[in-house]
Amino acid sequence: MTSDRAATDSPPIRLILADDHPLVLEGLRALLATVPDMRVVATATDGERLMEAVERFMPDVVVLDLEMPYVSGLTCLHRIRRAELPVRVLVLSAFGDSDSLRAALEAEADGFALKTEPPQNTIAAIRQVAAGQLVFPVAARRLLFEKRAPASGLTPREESVLALVAEGQSNAQIAQALGLTENTVKFHLQNLYQKLGVSNRTEAAAHFHRRK
Question: pTM (2 decimals)?
Answer without folding.
Answer: 0.68
